[in-house]
Amino acid sequence: MASEIFDSLPYYDDDLQKYPELKAKVQEEIARELKESQTLHPRVPPAIELFADNALLKAELQRAASNQPFPKLDSLRYSLSAPSSTPGTEEEWRTALNNASAQLQHQRIRQQNVALLQTYGANGWRIHNYLLESTAKQTEKALEELKELTVEVNRERKNTQDRLGKQLTSLETRWTELISSVLQIEMANVALDAEIERLNKKEAELAEL
Q1: 81: helix, coil or strand?
Q2: Which InterPro entries does the UniProt record give (predicted)?
Q3: Which of 146, 158, 163, 208 has minimal Cβ neighbours within 10 Å of its Cβ?
Q4: Where are the domains of the chain?
Q5: What is the DSSP letter of 51?
């Protein structure tokens, strides 16, 4: 596979500074390309669809994204309602008793959760914060390393382009000098040919006399 050749040394070329009208045209072209380009780069991964397999979480994400208010909690299922009729049927009392049992079990679970939180919550939160701080430090370190690598790459590119630019400028100057020398030699040859032709004519005239 042949290597690509880029005929550009942005760190060395100063055409845009020399010719302001050229810089304006470049800016217009860049703006036009950015406006026309609506497709993402092939290396950009496709968008991730969150909670594709969970309809409830997906609906909640859409609700939060659209800034819709959170639906009110259904407090009826937490109330201890007695049978609506007096004295009440056996089925109504059985339903009320089951509801009371469920409410009691729910309160027991809440008490257990509060006790667990008081016993282990503080340490769990400290561990969670420690992990977050460690992850943040690793991310910041990776970011600094990436910035340093970027600066080093740009510095190396600048030094390489400055070195190659000076070589190109020297070669271009030498090429200009050689072209000028060739033109001078050609002009001298033309002058010599004209002089030789003049002398030949003069010799022919003398020979006739």
Answers
A1: coil
A2: SPF27 (IPR008409)
A3: 208
A4: 10-37+90-166
A5: T
What string of DSSP letters covers 26-42? HHHHHHHHHHH--SPPT
- 16: burial class by Cβ within 10 Å (0-12, 13-18, 19+)? middle
Q: How far apart are CA 30 and CA 88, in angstroms?
A: 81
The rounded percent of the chain whose pLDDT value lies above 90 is 50
**Residue 15 near residue 22, CB atoms below 8 Å:** yes
Do the Cβ atoms of 69 and 60 come closer than 8 Å? no
Within a 10 A sphere around the Cβ of 95, how many other Cβ atoms? 14
CA angle 196, 197, 200 (to 5 degrees): 85
State both tokens at 15. Answer: 């055409």
CA–CA dist 63, 71 (Å, integer)? 10
CA angle (133 as vertex; 65, 124 as ends), nearest 5 = 85
pLDDT of residue 117: 92
Contact 189, 39 (CB under 8 A): no
Q: pTM score, two decimals?
A: 0.48
Helix (H, G, I), strand (E, B) or coil at 64: helix
Dmax (CA) of the chain: 161
| Tokens 């282990």 belong to residue | 120
DSSP 53: T
Task: Confirm if 8 and 26 have CB atoms less than 8 A apart.
Answer: no
Angle (CA) 41 46 52, round 5°: 170
